[in-house]
Amino acid sequence: MFGATEHNRRAARAETIAKVVLGVLTALLILPVLLILTTLVVKGAPAISIEFLTANPRDGMTAGGILPALVGTVWLVVVALVASVPVGVAAAVYLTEYAPDNWLTRIINLAIINLAGVPSIVHALFGVGAFVLFFELGTSILAASLTLAIMALPVVIVSTREALQAVPHSFREACWAMGATRWQTIRHVVLPNSVSGILTGVILEVSRTAGETAPIMFTGAAFFLPYLPQSVHDQTMALSLHLFVVTTQVPGVPAALPYGVALVLVAVVLLMNAGSIAFRMYLRGKKKW
Amino acid sequence: MAPRSEPDEPDAVDARDVAWYVDKLAAALIFVGGVSAVLFIIGIFVFVTREGMAFVAGRFDFVEFFTSIAWRPTSLIRPTFGALGLIAGTAAVTGLAMLVSIPVSMGVAIYIAEFARGRTREVLKVLVELLAAIPSVVWGFIGLMIMNPLIIDIFDVPLGLGVLNSGIILGLMAAPIMTTLAEDALKAVPDSFREAGEAMGATRWQVITRVVLPAAKRGLVAAALLGVGRGFGETMAVLMASGHAIHLPTSVFDSVRALTATIAAELGEASVGSDHYRALFTLGIFLFVITFVINLTADVLVRRVRKK
Amino acid sequence: MVTAAASTSATADEDAVEISVRDLRIEYAARVALHDVTLEVRRREIFAIIGPANSGKTSFLRVVNRMDEFVKDMHFSGEVKVHGRDVRAWRNLYALRRRIGVVFPLPVGLPLSVYDNVAFAPRLAGVRGKTELDAIVEKSLRRAALWDEVKDRLKALGSLLSGGQQQRLTIARALSQDPKILLLDEFSIAVDPVTTMRIEDVLKELRAEMTIVLVTNLVQQAQRLANRTAFFYMGECVEIGETEAFFSGDVEDQRTRDYLGGKFG
């Protein structure tokens, strides 16, 4: 009476089939990407050298290095960080510490989701319309970085908000009961214990902004410049745009070069992300309460 | 009862001190930060519309825009702004991408959320996260340098750039985000649901198909929608992998041009203030509105899930 | 010197009223938590509030130091005066809270060093000198019966101490404010009996210097410590009496008698 019925056997078989199918689907996602990354490494490694990373491009960008692109990306990322982190942290603090449960808060949350979903080329159009033209910043690092900052804002807000919410409410109540103001509580207890989460968001933002191309194409990044940028008002080259350029705009490029650029870009981005993941795991072990 | 006198409290103790004012100031600044996202979204709409408005108010012809594939903004004789070919290009590429991405990401999400345990699960989640981080221009590069020759070889066609190439690339790009969101939706289904199903003697798979998936339905649809939104708005990968022909595609090997790629390809050449320039901004308005609607719908769906 | 029989009101200063409440009504959105409460807490007495859960005891405490500001949808009406000044008329609520120490049911050690935990409030009040802070920290920890256990590890994280230690740390924090009033909300529910007794001894000593309002679900605790006891039941202040009379059966309301007799809890 308690033996396996035909129905049970069929159900068990269905489950095994399902597991196999799911496994195949997972492989379909992971394997091609691993193959692609391996190809990048294999075909790109020959182009990597100290010279590649520290010299300027030569011969119409068919040879030489990518230094100005690397330097330019650093400029763009740093300025974007300076612009977006204070605003993003403030926004997250508002949402966790102050925001009442009303329509405005709902609109803010909606705006954050939408901001994250705006197509990158629309960010570029906004950057041109607002920063390059209206605010008359011209095509410059400043215009491009501000465009990137607005694009990356949701990343900072979400990471910071998670970190702030992880701080137990009882800590805040204990501080308020002692007569501390909201700001004193945030400054002395909440924020210092959220720094690690904020850092995770910052690292994510860096990796995102380093890889973006469309928002900077028309706002400050140039295909080729004979000199390094001296101020935020200059134009600059950028690693992501450089990949686009050597792949599609430069004739007669030796095969390894674009692979080398792609490899450097992917390595930078993936290392940053892996670093942020590792940092998160490290934090999980270092509990303070 | 003895007469009681209430002790006096000198006014000095109730004085507003520096900390009081600093607190108010901090609250104001933080509030500004809080509404910044709203200001920026509005700003994006305002500035993109501002540049495109002259076109919409002037040269724009609704019928031509939506029904003509003649996108010839640089023609010296008679510039036309038919966007149907571009819309078809975007639709074809996004459609194929979803065909690839939805089954894969749902499958991976179910595997991670319901079957994988411990180490495997951690590793898979990390891999998905790293996948999501690959920049769009790198995907475009892959489409151009790796997929292109592959497609030419396997299918024996003259050109490997088109719907198939960019569709697959876009699918692989959208999959990680969709997977993560779908996994969140599945995790939001309380364990008690699963336990109830298992207590009735159902197998794991039966519990998933009959209990978990229906319960997570809204969240899963939202995840798919947001993936569509991502594919819709993708620029560099599509620019590099879809070719340049503006027409209605008839086969997956056809070259197409998407809305996003068009803006990216032509903005540099269009002179500021010209009809062409403003038409590109109008494409931008169109893109913004569509992704806004997609995001809004996804949010409404998720909100209903949370209210339960 | 305070004797063991806490029911004597010899040390309570009957001439001074520390907290005066008239027609207090507290609501959370649509739910009425407390209504028609009129009472007085006298200077330097231990005033206990007993009663079953959801009687409004915690809400009452929240209003006294205006922590209702931080609770969603909490509104109150009526007159509540601390030191003769209506709590709604205070222009600087933080100053009000600084004069009132609070101990919550669940022990809270802030994720700072033990030293910084206790120095938190004085630093906010502007105390900067190290010698002065050292003195305040030591005095507060001694009065809270925690000094001996932590004096060699003042740098340890307050949030990693044991529950009983964290509760005494909370008391030390409250004492570092040099408060006139101390509010305790069921301080012993998450704390072991030994620590509870130590804290009760601390309270008996503190009575000489400040007014203490003690919300407790342990009827015997009220009997041990309080000068006067109030019985709150289902949002009403049913009865207030001198503790000795209260617990020897001299009560007016049947509900009070039933609660004290253990008929419900």
SSE diagram, text form:
The complex is a heterotrimer of chains A (289), B (308) and C (265).
Chain A: H1 6-44, H2 50-54, E1 57-58, E2 63-64, H3 67-98, H4 103-117, H5 120-134, H6 141-165, H7 169-177, H8 182-190, H9 195-211, H10 214-217, H11 239-248, H12 256-285
Helix pairs in contact in A: 1-12, 3-6, 3-9, 3-11, 4-6, 5-6, 6-9, 7-8, 9-12, 11-12
Chain B: H1 18-57, H2 62-67, E1 71-72, E2 80-81, H3 84-115, H4 118-133, H5 136-155, H6 163-187, H7 191-199, H8 204-215, H9 217-233, H10 236-241, H11 259-266, H12 275-307
Antiparallel strand pairs in B: 1-2
Helix pairs in contact in B: 1-12, 3-6, 3-9, 4-6, 5-6, 6-9, 7-8, 9-12, 11-12
Chain C: E1 13-28, E2 31-43, E3 46-50, H1 57-64, E4 74-82, E5 85-86, H2 93-98, E6 100-103, H3 114-124, H4 130-143, H5 147-150, H6 163-176, E7 181-185, H7 193-206, E8 211-215, H8 219-225, E9 228-233, E10 236-242, H9 243-247, H10 254-260
Parallel strand pairs in C: 3-8, 3-9, 6-7, 7-8
Antiparallel strand pairs in C: 1-2, 1-4, 4-5, 9-10
Helix pairs in contact in C: 3-4, 3-6, 4-6
Structural description of this entry:
The complex is a heterotrimer of chains A (289), B (308) and C (265). With 289 residues, chain A is an all-alpha fold. Chain A has helices spanning 6-44, 50-54, 67-98, 103-117, 120-134, 141-165, 169-177, 182-190, 195-211, 214-217, 239-248, 256-285; strands spanning 57-58, 63-64. The termini of chain A are far apart. The model of chain A has no long low-confidence stretch (mean pLDDT 90). With 308 residues, chain B is mainly alpha-helical. Chain B has one domain (80-307): Orthogonal Bundle (MetI-like fold), CATH 1.10.3720.10. In chain B, strands 1-2 form a two-stranded antiparallel sheet. In chain B, helix 3 packs across helix 6 (163-187) and helix 6 (163-187) packs antiparallel against helix 9. Chain B is flat and about 80 Å long. Chain C is built from ten helices and ten strands. Chain C has a six-stranded mixed sheet with strand order 6-7-8-3-9-10, sandwiched between helices. A four-stranded antiparallel sheet of chain C has the order 2-1-4-5, covered by helices on one side. The longest helix of chain C is centred in the middle third of the chain and has 14 residues, at 130-143. The relative contact order of chain C is 0.19. Mean pLDDT of chain C is 89; it is low at 1-11. Classes of the chains: A mainly alpha (289), B mainly alpha (308), C alpha/beta (265).
